[in-house]
Amino acid sequence: MSTVALPNTDFxxxxxxxxxxxxxxxxxxxxxxxxxxxxxxxxxxxxEAIYEHFENVDDYIHPALVxxxxxxxxxxxxxxxxDNVLNAWSHRCELKATNPKTxxxxxxxxxxxxxxxxxxLPTTLGTRSxxxxxxxxxxxxxxxxxxIVSRVLDAxxxxxxxxxxxxxxxxxxxxxxxxxxVQNPWAHGYSAGGSSSxxxxxxxxxxxxxxxxVSFGDSVDMAIGGDQGGSIRLPAAYxxxxxxxxxxxxxxxxxxxxxxPMVDSVGPIAxxxxxxxxxxxxxxxxxxxxxxxxxxxxxxxRVPEYPALLRDSFAECQSSTSNTRPSxxxxxxxxxxxxxxxxxxxxxxxxxxxxxxxxxxxxxVVEISVPLHAEGPLFWTAATRATMxxxxxxxxxxxxxxxxxxxxxLQWPPNQDMYELLSDTNPTINNLIFSSAFLKDKYGPGVEAxxxxxxxxxxxxxxxxxxxxxxxxxxxxxxxxxQHPELTRDGKRTGIMERINPAIGLSSNTCPFNVxxxxxxxxxxxxxxxxxxxxxxxxxxxxxxKRWDETMVLKxxxxxxxxxxxxxxxxxxxxxxxx
Length: 579
Description:
By secondary structure, the protein is an alpha/beta fold. The protein contains 15 helices and 15 strands. It has an 11-stranded mixed β-sheet with strand order 1-3-2-6-8-7-14-15-11-9-10, sandwiched between helices. A two-stranded antiparallel ribbon has the order 4-5.
Protein backbone atom coordinates (compact mmCIF):
# COMPACT_ATOMS: atom_id res chain seq x y z
CA MET A 1 0.00 0.00 0.00
CA SER A 2 1.25 3.48 -0.79
CA THR A 3 0.33 7.08 -0.11
CA VAL A 4 -0.78 8.41 -3.49
CA ALA A 5 -0.41 12.11 -2.74
CA LEU A 6 0.23 14.61 0.01
CA PRO A 7 -2.35 17.31 0.70
CA ASN A 8 -1.83 20.46 -1.37
CA THR A 9 -1.35 23.84 0.21
CA ASP A 10 -4.97 24.86 -0.46
CA PHE A 11 -6.36 22.10 1.73
CA UNK A 12 -7.28 23.22 5.21
CA UNK A 13 -6.85 20.19 7.45
CA UNK A 14 -9.03 19.76 10.51
CA UNK A 15 -6.55 17.39 12.18
CA UNK A 16 -4.18 18.69 14.83
CA UNK A 17 -1.22 17.10 16.58
CA UNK A 18 -3.47 16.60 19.60
CA UNK A 19 -5.92 14.66 17.42
CA UNK A 20 -3.13 12.40 16.21
CA UNK A 21 -1.95 11.78 19.77
CA UNK A 22 -5.50 10.95 20.88
CA UNK A 23 -5.84 8.56 17.97
CA UNK A 24 -2.59 6.81 18.88
CA UNK A 25 -3.65 6.61 22.53
CA UNK A 26 -6.64 4.46 21.52
CA UNK A 27 -4.06 1.79 20.64
CA UNK A 28 -1.98 2.49 23.76
CA UNK A 29 0.69 4.04 21.56
CA UNK A 30 2.71 7.04 22.75
CA UNK A 31 4.10 9.18 19.94
CA UNK A 32 7.36 11.02 20.43
CA UNK A 33 7.39 14.72 19.62
CA UNK A 34 9.49 15.73 16.67
CA UNK A 35 10.03 14.66 13.08
CA UNK A 36 8.24 11.29 13.35
CA UNK A 37 5.12 12.86 14.80
CA UNK A 38 5.12 15.57 12.13
CA UNK A 39 5.49 12.94 9.39
CA UNK A 40 2.55 10.87 10.64
CA UNK A 41 0.44 14.01 10.91
CA UNK A 42 1.18 14.90 7.27
CA UNK A 43 0.33 11.37 6.13
CA UNK A 44 -2.91 11.40 8.10
CA UNK A 45 -3.85 14.75 6.57
CA UNK A 46 -3.31 13.18 3.15
CA UNK A 47 -5.95 10.54 3.88
CA GLU A 48 -8.24 13.27 5.20
CA ALA A 49 -7.84 15.34 2.03
CA ILE A 50 -8.76 12.42 -0.21
CA TYR A 51 -11.83 11.55 1.86
CA GLU A 52 -12.95 15.19 1.95
CA HIS A 53 -12.72 15.22 -1.84
CA PHE A 54 -14.76 12.04 -2.25
CA GLU A 55 -17.36 13.14 0.26
CA ASN A 56 -18.15 16.15 -1.91
CA VAL A 57 -18.00 14.75 -5.47
CA ASP A 58 -21.12 13.57 -7.30
CA ASP A 59 -22.08 9.94 -6.69
CA TYR A 60 -22.06 7.40 -9.52
CA ILE A 61 -25.22 5.63 -10.63
CA HIS A 62 -24.27 2.37 -12.31
CA PRO A 63 -25.95 2.20 -15.75
CA ALA A 64 -27.45 -1.19 -14.90
CA LEU A 65 -29.20 0.36 -11.90
CA VAL A 66 -30.74 3.40 -13.57
CA UNK A 67 -34.49 3.15 -12.87
CA UNK A 68 -36.41 1.36 -15.60
CA UNK A 69 -38.61 3.76 -17.64
CA UNK A 70 -42.21 3.32 -16.51
CA UNK A 71 -45.55 4.04 -18.14
CA UNK A 72 -46.37 6.71 -15.58
CA UNK A 73 -44.51 8.94 -13.18
CA UNK A 74 -43.06 7.16 -10.18
CA UNK A 75 -45.49 8.40 -7.54
CA UNK A 76 -45.99 6.79 -4.15
CA UNK A 77 -48.35 7.14 -1.22
CA UNK A 78 -49.10 5.80 2.22
CA UNK A 79 -52.27 3.70 1.89
CA UNK A 80 -55.34 4.51 3.95
CA UNK A 81 -56.07 2.21 6.88
CA UNK A 82 -58.94 0.48 5.06
CA ASP A 83 -56.51 -0.38 2.25
CA ASN A 84 -53.83 -1.52 4.69
CA VAL A 85 -55.77 -3.62 7.18
CA LEU A 86 -52.77 -5.80 8.03
CA ASN A 87 -50.33 -2.85 8.23
CA ALA A 88 -48.32 -4.79 5.65
CA TRP A 89 -47.78 -1.92 3.20
CA SER A 90 -45.03 0.61 3.76
CA HIS A 91 -45.76 2.64 0.62
CA ARG A 92 -47.90 1.98 -2.43
CA CYS A 93 -47.25 2.70 -6.08
CA GLU A 94 -48.38 1.48 -9.50
CA LEU A 95 -45.36 0.88 -11.74
CA LYS A 96 -45.19 -0.88 -15.10
CA ALA A 97 -42.27 -0.77 -17.50
CA THR A 98 -42.77 1.27 -20.66
CA ASN A 99 -41.11 -1.38 -22.79
CA PRO A 100 -40.80 -4.67 -20.90
CA LYS A 101 -38.32 -7.14 -22.34
CA THR A 102 -40.52 -10.20 -21.74
CA UNK A 103 -44.06 -11.01 -20.66
CA UNK A 104 -43.07 -13.59 -18.04
CA UNK A 105 -44.83 -11.64 -15.29
CA UNK A 106 -47.48 -9.93 -17.40
CA UNK A 107 -50.71 -9.66 -15.46
CA UNK A 108 -48.98 -10.38 -12.13
CA UNK A 109 -48.63 -7.98 -9.22
CA UNK A 110 -45.44 -7.88 -7.15
CA UNK A 111 -44.26 -6.05 -4.03
CA UNK A 112 -40.78 -5.61 -2.56
CA UNK A 113 -39.57 -5.68 1.02
CA UNK A 114 -38.73 -2.26 2.44
CA UNK A 115 -34.98 -2.81 2.35
CA UNK A 116 -34.93 -3.09 -1.46
CA UNK A 117 -34.23 0.02 -3.55
CA UNK A 118 -37.10 0.97 -5.86
CA UNK A 119 -36.28 4.11 -7.81
CA UNK A 120 -38.35 7.13 -6.79
CA LEU A 121 -39.71 5.43 -3.65
CA PRO A 122 -38.60 5.86 -0.03
CA THR A 123 -36.74 3.23 1.95
CA THR A 124 -37.68 3.03 5.64
CA LEU A 125 -36.05 -0.18 6.95
CA GLY A 126 -38.95 -0.27 9.39
CA THR A 127 -37.61 2.60 11.49
CA ARG A 128 -37.67 6.39 11.86
CA SER A 129 -36.36 8.62 9.10
CA UNK A 130 -33.95 10.26 11.56
CA UNK A 131 -31.85 7.08 11.58
CA UNK A 132 -31.66 6.79 7.79
CA UNK A 133 -31.22 10.21 6.28
CA UNK A 134 -28.82 13.11 6.70
CA UNK A 135 -31.84 15.44 6.49
CA UNK A 136 -33.47 13.56 9.35
CA UNK A 137 -37.05 14.57 8.58
CA UNK A 138 -37.86 12.66 5.39
CA UNK A 139 -37.20 9.11 4.37
CA UNK A 140 -34.45 8.82 1.74
CA UNK A 141 -35.69 8.36 -1.83
CA UNK A 142 -33.96 5.72 -3.90
CA UNK A 143 -32.07 6.88 -6.98
CA UNK A 144 -31.70 3.35 -8.33
CA UNK A 145 -33.65 0.21 -9.09
CA UNK A 146 -32.09 -2.79 -7.41
CA UNK A 147 -31.11 -5.46 -9.94
CA ILE A 148 -34.10 -7.58 -8.98
CA VAL A 149 -36.49 -4.61 -9.31
CA SER A 150 -35.30 -3.97 -12.87
CA ARG A 151 -35.74 -7.65 -13.70
CA VAL A 152 -39.29 -7.76 -12.34
CA LEU A 153 -40.31 -4.62 -14.24
CA ASP A 154 -38.60 -5.86 -17.41
CA ALA A 155 -40.66 -9.06 -17.11
CA UNK A 156 -43.88 -7.06 -17.39
CA UNK A 157 -45.06 -7.13 -13.77
CA UNK A 158 -47.12 -4.50 -12.03
CA UNK A 159 -45.10 -3.30 -9.03
CA UNK A 160 -47.61 -2.27 -6.37
CA UNK A 161 -45.26 -1.01 -3.69
CA UNK A 162 -42.89 -1.77 -0.87
CA UNK A 163 -43.87 -3.85 2.13
CA UNK A 164 -43.42 -3.30 5.83
CA UNK A 165 -40.29 -4.88 7.23
CA UNK A 166 -39.02 -5.21 10.77
CA UNK A 167 -36.60 -2.62 12.15
CA UNK A 168 -33.30 -2.97 10.26
CA UNK A 169 -34.60 -6.33 8.95
CA UNK A 170 -33.66 -7.92 12.26
CA UNK A 171 -36.57 -9.75 13.87
CA UNK A 172 -38.31 -13.06 13.37
CA UNK A 173 -41.52 -11.51 14.76
CA UNK A 174 -43.75 -8.92 13.07
CA UNK A 175 -44.09 -6.43 15.92
CA UNK A 176 -40.93 -4.28 15.72
CA UNK A 177 -41.62 -1.96 12.78
CA UNK A 178 -41.90 1.73 13.63
CA UNK A 179 -45.28 1.64 11.86
CA UNK A 180 -46.61 -0.95 14.30
CA UNK A 181 -47.26 -4.71 14.17
CA VAL A 182 -48.02 -6.51 10.91
CA GLN A 183 -51.06 -8.75 11.34
CA ASN A 184 -51.36 -12.35 10.23
CA PRO A 185 -54.18 -12.62 7.66
CA TRP A 186 -55.31 -15.94 9.15
CA ALA A 187 -55.73 -14.46 12.63
CA HIS A 188 -55.56 -10.82 13.70
CA GLY A 189 -53.29 -10.36 16.70
CA TYR A 190 -50.89 -13.10 15.61
CA SER A 191 -47.39 -12.74 14.21
CA ALA A 192 -46.91 -12.70 10.47
CA GLY A 193 -43.25 -13.62 10.99
CA GLY A 194 -40.23 -11.49 10.19
CA SER A 195 -38.38 -9.78 9.01
CA SER A 196 -40.14 -9.83 5.60
CA SER A 197 -43.39 -9.50 7.51
CA UNK A 198 -45.32 -7.35 5.04
CA UNK A 199 -44.29 -9.46 2.06
CA UNK A 200 -45.52 -12.65 3.71
CA UNK A 201 -48.73 -11.08 4.99
CA UNK A 202 -49.73 -9.54 1.65
CA UNK A 203 -49.24 -12.78 -0.26
CA UNK A 204 -51.06 -14.65 2.49
CA UNK A 205 -53.87 -12.09 2.36
CA UNK A 206 -54.30 -12.78 -1.33
CA UNK A 207 -54.98 -16.43 -0.50
CA UNK A 208 -57.10 -15.85 2.61
CA UNK A 209 -59.32 -13.34 0.82
CA UNK A 210 -60.15 -16.02 -1.77
CA UNK A 211 -60.62 -18.81 0.77
CA UNK A 212 -62.61 -16.87 3.36
CA UNK A 213 -64.00 -14.02 1.28
CA VAL A 214 -62.43 -11.46 3.61
CA SER A 215 -61.10 -8.15 2.30
CA PHE A 216 -57.75 -6.86 3.53
CA GLY A 217 -57.48 -4.02 1.03
CA ASP A 218 -54.79 -4.25 -1.63
CA SER A 219 -52.75 -7.46 -1.74
CA VAL A 220 -50.35 -8.98 -4.29
CA ASP A 221 -49.88 -12.17 -6.26
CA MET A 222 -46.26 -12.51 -5.21
CA ALA A 223 -43.62 -10.64 -3.25
CA ILE A 224 -39.88 -10.44 -2.75
CA GLY A 225 -38.44 -10.87 0.71
CA GLY A 226 -34.96 -10.81 2.20
CA ASP A 227 -33.49 -13.68 4.18
CA GLN A 228 -30.39 -13.64 6.39
CA GLY A 229 -31.58 -16.22 8.92
CA GLY A 230 -35.06 -17.22 7.81
CA SER A 231 -36.75 -13.93 7.00
CA ILE A 232 -38.41 -15.22 3.82
CA ARG A 233 -39.22 -18.70 5.04
CA LEU A 234 -40.64 -17.83 8.47
CA PRO A 235 -43.19 -15.26 7.20
CA ALA A 236 -44.11 -17.56 4.33
CA ALA A 237 -44.69 -20.44 6.76
CA TYR A 238 -46.72 -18.40 9.25
CA UNK A 239 -48.89 -16.98 6.45
CA UNK A 240 -49.50 -20.31 4.70
CA UNK A 241 -47.37 -19.48 1.63
CA UNK A 242 -44.40 -20.82 -0.28
CA UNK A 243 -41.11 -19.00 0.27
CA UNK A 244 -37.66 -19.72 -1.11
CA UNK A 245 -34.18 -18.81 -0.01
CA UNK A 246 -32.23 -19.81 -3.08
CA UNK A 247 -28.61 -20.93 -3.13
CA UNK A 248 -26.49 -18.03 -1.89
CA UNK A 249 -25.30 -16.20 -4.98
CA UNK A 250 -28.04 -17.32 -7.35
CA UNK A 251 -30.03 -14.07 -7.08
CA UNK A 252 -28.19 -10.71 -7.07
CA UNK A 253 -28.40 -8.64 -3.89
CA UNK A 254 -27.31 -5.40 -5.57
CA UNK A 255 -29.34 -2.43 -4.35
CA UNK A 256 -30.58 -4.15 -1.20
CA UNK A 257 -29.60 -3.10 2.32
CA UNK A 258 -27.16 -5.64 3.73
CA UNK A 259 -26.95 -7.34 7.10
CA UNK A 260 -23.98 -9.60 6.42
CA PRO A 261 -22.62 -10.43 2.95
CA MET A 262 -22.14 -14.14 3.65
CA VAL A 263 -25.83 -14.63 4.50
CA ASP A 264 -27.63 -11.90 2.53
CA SER A 265 -30.30 -13.38 0.25
CA VAL A 266 -33.45 -12.24 -1.51
CA GLY A 267 -36.13 -14.46 -2.96
CA PRO A 268 -39.76 -15.13 -3.86
CA ILE A 269 -42.88 -15.58 -1.75
CA ALA A 270 -46.02 -16.85 -3.51
CA UNK A 271 -49.16 -18.91 -3.05
CA UNK A 272 -48.24 -21.69 -5.46
CA UNK A 273 -45.17 -23.46 -6.76
CA UNK A 274 -45.71 -22.24 -10.31
CA UNK A 275 -45.31 -18.63 -9.19
CA UNK A 276 -42.24 -19.48 -7.11
CA UNK A 277 -40.61 -21.09 -10.16
CA UNK A 278 -41.64 -18.22 -12.42
CA UNK A 279 -40.34 -15.50 -10.12
CA UNK A 280 -37.15 -17.47 -9.51
CA UNK A 281 -36.63 -17.60 -13.28
CA UNK A 282 -36.97 -13.82 -13.46
CA UNK A 283 -34.72 -13.03 -10.48
CA UNK A 284 -31.84 -15.48 -10.92
CA UNK A 285 -28.54 -14.99 -12.68
CA UNK A 286 -25.33 -13.00 -12.49
CA UNK A 287 -25.68 -9.22 -12.63
CA UNK A 288 -22.01 -8.27 -12.98
CA UNK A 289 -22.06 -6.15 -9.82
CA UNK A 290 -22.82 -8.22 -6.72
CA UNK A 291 -19.67 -9.83 -5.33
CA UNK A 292 -21.79 -12.35 -3.42
CA UNK A 293 -22.16 -14.01 -6.80
CA UNK A 294 -19.26 -16.26 -7.75
CA UNK A 295 -17.98 -18.38 -10.62
CA UNK A 296 -20.69 -20.90 -9.64
CA UNK A 297 -23.46 -18.36 -10.27
CA UNK A 298 -25.08 -18.86 -13.68
CA UNK A 299 -25.18 -16.15 -16.31
CA UNK A 300 -28.69 -14.95 -17.12
CA UNK A 301 -28.95 -17.07 -20.26
CA ARG A 302 -27.76 -20.14 -18.35
CA VAL A 303 -30.39 -19.95 -15.60
CA PRO A 304 -32.43 -23.18 -15.61
CA GLU A 305 -35.96 -22.82 -16.97
CA TYR A 306 -37.57 -23.47 -13.62
CA PRO A 307 -41.22 -23.20 -14.76
CA ALA A 308 -40.70 -25.77 -17.53
CA LEU A 309 -38.80 -28.08 -15.21
CA LEU A 310 -41.56 -27.77 -12.62
CA ARG A 311 -44.15 -28.67 -15.26
CA ASP A 312 -42.09 -31.76 -16.04
CA SER A 313 -42.16 -32.66 -12.34
CA PHE A 314 -45.93 -32.30 -12.15
CA ALA A 315 -46.25 -34.43 -15.29
CA GLU A 316 -44.07 -37.06 -13.64
CA CYS A 317 -46.37 -36.92 -10.61
CA GLN A 318 -49.38 -37.67 -12.78
CA SER A 319 -47.68 -40.61 -14.49
CA SER A 320 -46.23 -42.03 -11.27
CA THR A 321 -47.50 -45.51 -10.37
CA SER A 322 -46.45 -48.24 -7.99
CA ASN A 323 -44.50 -49.75 -10.88
CA THR A 324 -42.66 -46.54 -11.78
CA ARG A 325 -41.25 -45.19 -8.57
CA PRO A 326 -39.73 -41.68 -8.71
CA SER A 327 -35.96 -41.63 -8.96
CA UNK A 328 -35.29 -39.59 -5.84
CA UNK A 329 -35.21 -40.10 -2.09
CA UNK A 330 -36.35 -37.91 0.78
CA UNK A 331 -34.57 -37.68 4.13
CA UNK A 332 -36.25 -36.58 7.35
CA UNK A 333 -33.51 -34.66 9.17
CA UNK A 334 -33.57 -36.21 12.63
CA UNK A 335 -31.98 -33.35 14.56
CA UNK A 336 -34.31 -30.76 13.01
CA UNK A 337 -37.30 -32.38 14.71
CA UNK A 338 -35.51 -32.22 18.08
CA UNK A 339 -34.17 -28.65 18.26
CA UNK A 340 -34.75 -26.87 21.59
CA UNK A 341 -38.19 -25.28 21.75
CA UNK A 342 -39.70 -27.48 19.05
CA UNK A 343 -43.42 -28.04 19.59
CA UNK A 344 -43.84 -31.85 19.60
CA UNK A 345 -47.21 -31.49 17.90
CA UNK A 346 -45.65 -29.56 15.01
CA UNK A 347 -42.76 -32.03 14.74
CA UNK A 348 -45.21 -34.95 14.54
CA UNK A 349 -47.48 -33.11 12.13
CA UNK A 350 -44.66 -32.34 9.67
CA UNK A 351 -43.11 -35.80 9.95
CA UNK A 352 -46.43 -37.59 9.42
CA UNK A 353 -47.47 -35.28 6.58
CA UNK A 354 -44.15 -35.76 4.80
CA UNK A 355 -44.22 -39.55 5.10
CA UNK A 356 -47.83 -39.85 3.99
CA UNK A 357 -47.61 -37.45 1.04
CA UNK A 358 -44.31 -38.68 -0.37
CA UNK A 359 -45.08 -42.34 0.16
CA UNK A 360 -48.45 -41.81 -1.53
CA UNK A 361 -46.42 -40.83 -4.59
CA UNK A 362 -44.03 -43.75 -4.26
CA UNK A 363 -41.13 -41.62 -3.01
CA UNK A 364 -38.89 -43.42 -0.48
CA VAL A 365 -38.68 -41.60 2.87
CA VAL A 366 -35.87 -42.34 5.31
CA GLU A 367 -34.57 -40.76 8.49
CA ILE A 368 -31.14 -39.20 8.20
CA SER A 369 -28.88 -37.71 10.84
CA VAL A 370 -26.65 -34.63 10.72
CA PRO A 371 -25.51 -34.16 14.34
CA LEU A 372 -23.95 -30.78 13.54
CA HIS A 373 -27.38 -29.41 12.62
CA ALA A 374 -28.06 -29.02 16.35
CA GLU A 375 -25.18 -26.54 16.46
CA GLY A 376 -26.22 -24.76 13.26
CA PRO A 377 -27.53 -21.64 15.01
CA LEU A 378 -24.23 -21.38 16.89
CA PHE A 379 -22.32 -21.49 13.60
CA TRP A 380 -24.60 -18.75 12.23
CA THR A 381 -24.09 -16.54 15.29
CA ALA A 382 -20.34 -16.98 15.55
CA ALA A 383 -19.84 -16.38 11.83
CA THR A 384 -21.84 -13.14 11.70
CA ARG A 385 -22.44 -11.50 15.08
CA ALA A 386 -19.17 -9.61 15.61
CA THR A 387 -19.45 -7.71 12.33
CA MET A 388 -23.19 -7.65 11.59
CA UNK A 389 -23.60 -4.17 13.05
CA UNK A 390 -20.79 -3.00 10.75
CA UNK A 391 -22.65 -4.16 7.63
CA UNK A 392 -26.27 -3.76 8.67
CA UNK A 393 -26.24 -0.62 10.79
CA UNK A 394 -23.04 1.30 10.05
CA UNK A 395 -23.14 0.40 6.31
CA UNK A 396 -19.47 -0.53 6.23
CA UNK A 397 -18.21 -1.74 2.86
CA UNK A 398 -17.12 -5.40 2.85
CA UNK A 399 -13.59 -4.89 1.52
CA UNK A 400 -14.30 -6.12 -2.01
CA UNK A 401 -15.87 -4.07 -4.78
CA UNK A 402 -19.48 -3.42 -3.81
CA UNK A 403 -22.38 -1.08 -4.52
CA UNK A 404 -24.31 0.10 -1.48
CA UNK A 405 -27.62 1.91 -2.10
CA UNK A 406 -26.39 5.50 -2.60
CA UNK A 407 -29.42 7.18 -1.04
CA UNK A 408 -28.94 5.59 2.38
CA UNK A 409 -26.90 7.40 5.07
CA LEU A 410 -27.55 5.52 8.29
CA GLN A 411 -27.01 6.95 11.76
CA TRP A 412 -23.59 5.90 13.05
CA PRO A 413 -22.20 5.86 15.67
CA PRO A 414 -25.18 5.19 17.92
CA ASN A 415 -26.31 7.88 20.34
CA GLN A 416 -28.78 8.16 23.19
CA ASP A 417 -31.72 9.05 20.95
CA MET A 418 -31.01 6.05 18.74
CA TYR A 419 -30.70 3.76 21.76
CA GLU A 420 -34.01 4.90 23.23
CA LEU A 421 -35.85 4.63 19.93
CA LEU A 422 -34.57 1.10 19.36
CA SER A 423 -35.35 0.11 22.94
CA ASP A 424 -38.94 1.12 22.23
CA THR A 425 -39.21 -0.66 18.87
CA ASN A 426 -36.59 -3.37 18.36
CA PRO A 427 -34.14 -3.84 21.25
CA THR A 428 -32.53 -6.63 19.24
CA ILE A 429 -30.63 -3.91 17.37
CA ASN A 430 -29.17 -2.48 20.58
CA ASN A 431 -28.15 -6.00 21.57
CA LEU A 432 -26.51 -6.38 18.17
CA ILE A 433 -24.57 -3.13 18.61
CA PHE A 434 -23.43 -4.01 22.13
CA SER A 435 -22.55 -7.64 21.40
CA SER A 436 -20.68 -6.74 18.21
CA ALA A 437 -18.55 -4.20 20.06
CA PHE A 438 -17.93 -6.57 22.97
CA LEU A 439 -16.96 -9.53 20.80
CA LYS A 440 -14.55 -7.47 18.70
CA ASP A 441 -12.95 -5.93 21.78
CA LYS A 442 -12.55 -9.23 23.64
CA TYR A 443 -11.83 -11.71 20.85
CA GLY A 444 -10.66 -9.66 17.88
CA PRO A 445 -11.32 -11.08 14.41
CA GLY A 446 -9.94 -14.54 15.13
CA VAL A 447 -13.07 -16.29 16.42
CA GLU A 448 -15.27 -15.05 13.57
CA ALA A 449 -12.61 -16.16 11.09
CA UNK A 450 -12.53 -19.59 12.73
CA UNK A 451 -16.33 -19.75 12.59
CA UNK A 452 -16.18 -19.06 8.85
CA UNK A 453 -13.80 -21.99 8.45
CA UNK A 454 -16.10 -24.16 10.55
CA UNK A 455 -19.01 -23.29 8.24
CA UNK A 456 -17.26 -25.33 5.57
CA UNK A 457 -17.46 -28.27 7.99
CA UNK A 458 -21.20 -27.70 8.47
CA UNK A 459 -21.70 -27.40 4.72
CA UNK A 460 -19.85 -30.67 4.20
CA UNK A 461 -22.03 -32.39 6.80
CA UNK A 462 -25.17 -31.40 4.90
CA UNK A 463 -23.53 -32.31 1.59
CA UNK A 464 -22.70 -35.76 2.95
CA UNK A 465 -26.34 -36.24 3.95
CA UNK A 466 -27.48 -34.99 0.55
CA UNK A 467 -25.27 -37.60 -1.12
CA UNK A 468 -27.54 -40.24 0.45
CA UNK A 469 -30.87 -38.51 -0.23
CA UNK A 470 -31.90 -35.81 -2.67
CA UNK A 471 -33.59 -33.43 -0.24
CA UNK A 472 -33.82 -32.94 3.51
CA UNK A 473 -37.19 -32.39 5.19
CA UNK A 474 -37.89 -30.61 8.48
CA UNK A 475 -40.30 -28.19 10.18
CA UNK A 476 -39.72 -24.63 9.04
CA UNK A 477 -40.70 -23.17 12.40
CA UNK A 478 -40.61 -24.35 16.00
CA UNK A 479 -44.36 -23.96 16.35
CA UNK A 480 -47.37 -22.03 15.17
CA UNK A 481 -47.40 -18.26 14.86
CA UNK A 482 -47.52 -16.69 18.31
CA GLN A 483 -49.67 -13.81 19.44
CA HIS A 484 -47.95 -10.44 19.29
CA PRO A 485 -46.02 -9.65 22.47
CA GLU A 486 -47.54 -6.86 24.53
CA LEU A 487 -45.63 -3.70 23.60
CA THR A 488 -47.04 -1.35 26.24
CA ARG A 489 -48.78 -1.75 29.58
CA ASP A 490 -50.31 1.02 31.69
CA GLY A 491 -48.91 3.62 29.32
CA LYS A 492 -45.35 2.31 29.55
CA ARG A 493 -43.44 0.03 27.23
CA THR A 494 -43.04 -3.53 28.39
CA GLY A 495 -39.68 -4.99 29.37
CA ILE A 496 -36.93 -5.80 26.88
CA MET A 497 -36.94 -9.55 27.53
CA GLU A 498 -40.73 -9.72 27.47
CA ARG A 499 -40.59 -8.55 23.86
CA ILE A 500 -37.50 -10.50 22.80
CA ASN A 501 -38.28 -13.87 24.40
CA PRO A 502 -40.93 -14.91 21.83
CA ALA A 503 -38.32 -14.61 19.06
CA ILE A 504 -35.57 -16.66 20.68
CA GLY A 505 -34.74 -19.80 18.73
CA LEU A 506 -37.35 -19.31 15.99
CA SER A 507 -34.72 -19.54 13.24
CA SER A 508 -33.08 -22.73 14.53
CA ASN A 509 -34.03 -24.72 11.41
CA THR A 510 -33.58 -21.90 8.93
CA CYS A 511 -30.42 -19.94 9.80
CA PRO A 512 -27.96 -22.85 9.34
CA PHE A 513 -28.71 -22.88 5.60
CA ASN A 514 -27.95 -19.18 5.31
CA VAL A 515 -24.35 -19.72 6.31
CA UNK A 516 -23.91 -22.92 4.28
CA UNK A 517 -25.72 -21.47 1.26
CA UNK A 518 -28.04 -24.43 0.56
CA UNK A 519 -31.39 -23.70 -1.13
CA UNK A 520 -34.36 -23.98 1.21
CA UNK A 521 -38.05 -23.77 0.39
CA UNK A 522 -40.90 -23.66 2.88
CA UNK A 523 -44.15 -25.22 1.67
CA UNK A 524 -47.64 -25.18 3.23
CA UNK A 525 -48.19 -28.27 5.36
CA UNK A 526 -51.73 -27.99 6.65
CA UNK A 527 -52.86 -26.33 9.85
CA UNK A 528 -52.43 -26.71 13.58
CA UNK A 529 -54.51 -25.51 16.52
CA UNK A 530 -53.29 -22.97 19.06
CA UNK A 531 -54.00 -24.83 22.30
CA UNK A 532 -54.65 -21.57 24.16
CA UNK A 533 -57.19 -20.07 21.76
CA UNK A 534 -58.26 -22.94 19.44
CA UNK A 535 -57.20 -20.70 16.54
CA UNK A 536 -56.21 -22.69 13.45
CA UNK A 537 -52.92 -21.50 11.97
CA UNK A 538 -50.69 -22.58 9.05
CA UNK A 539 -47.82 -25.05 9.42
CA UNK A 540 -44.74 -24.88 7.20
CA UNK A 541 -42.43 -27.69 6.05
CA UNK A 542 -38.93 -26.89 4.81
CA UNK A 543 -37.28 -28.68 1.88
CA UNK A 544 -33.50 -28.29 1.60
CA UNK A 545 -31.49 -29.40 -1.41
CA LYS A 546 -27.99 -29.49 -2.80
CA ARG A 547 -26.42 -26.14 -3.57
CA TRP A 548 -27.43 -24.94 -7.05
CA ASP A 549 -30.11 -27.62 -7.34
CA GLU A 550 -33.28 -25.57 -6.92
CA THR A 551 -34.82 -27.83 -9.56
CA MET A 552 -34.78 -30.83 -7.22
CA VAL A 553 -36.18 -28.75 -4.37
CA LEU A 554 -39.07 -27.68 -6.60
CA LYS A 555 -39.54 -31.27 -7.78
CA UNK A 556 -39.78 -32.54 -4.22
CA UNK A 557 -42.28 -29.79 -3.43
CA UNK A 558 -44.34 -30.80 -6.47
CA UNK A 559 -44.46 -34.43 -5.36
CA UNK A 560 -45.37 -33.41 -1.80
CA UNK A 561 -48.19 -31.22 -3.11
CA UNK A 562 -49.44 -33.99 -5.41
CA UNK A 563 -49.31 -36.48 -2.55
CA UNK A 564 -51.32 -34.15 -0.33
CA UNK A 565 -53.93 -33.78 -3.06
CA UNK A 566 -54.18 -37.55 -3.53
CA UNK A 567 -54.66 -38.06 0.21
CA UNK A 568 -57.34 -35.36 0.35
CA UNK A 569 -59.06 -36.89 -2.68
CA UNK A 570 -59.02 -40.35 -1.13
CA UNK A 571 -60.34 -38.96 2.17
CA UNK A 572 -63.12 -37.13 0.35
CA UNK A 573 -64.14 -40.23 -1.60
CA UNK A 574 -63.97 -42.35 1.54
CA UNK A 575 -66.19 -39.86 3.35
CA UNK A 576 -68.71 -39.89 0.52
CA UNK A 577 -68.82 -43.70 0.47
CA UNK A 578 -69.76 -43.72 4.18
CA UNK A 579 -72.62 -41.25 3.78
